[in-house]
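quick one before i forget lol
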Amino acid sequence: MHYFNSDTAAGTAGGTLLGIILHINGEDVVKTMVLAAIGAVISFGVSVSLKWGLDKIRAMRQRK
């Protein structure tokens, strides 16, 4: 038999979030934002490059 107490769940979730928030400093947040931005730019660049390359390959195949 499982009994779900919403007060206990809310308290556990709130305590966990508060514990995480108190242990994260500003440098970690900034570092995460910078790394996420760099990753997004690189991912976009690779996607555009692959699309361009595939378009070139398809164009060469159609000429033959």
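fyi DSSP finds two helices and no strands in the chain.
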